[in-house]
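Q: Convert this sequence to structure tokens.
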Amino acid sequence: QVQLVESGGGLVQPGGSLRLSCAASGLTLSNYAMGWFRQAPGKEREFVTAISWSGGNTDYADAVKGRFTISRDNAKNTVSLQMNSLRPEDTAVYYCAADAYGLGSRARYVYSYWGQGTQVTVSS
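A:
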């Protein structure tokens, strides 16, 4: 059984920070590239960031570049998303996903496994 579980979401004021984590069971994350996507109500699920299976390559959407940092700890079978300088437009449900292609794609369809999501709300 494969399961990805996100945690760390919550309510934060603009300019604040959150750190999201994604823990995997039933698969070894070192065999997958990992991505983070987000979806706001009424909007399409969009790419946020991805990291290659080795951690040697990362990719960020323009909207988060310079503010968010993706990292992975293959020994712990986890991937994290450090979110700084948060803005109201960052409000969304954040999902982690595992990509068997191994490089970290911006396309949703290449991801085989998805977590249930964690809510991030940036508001005063």
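The mean pLDDT is 95.
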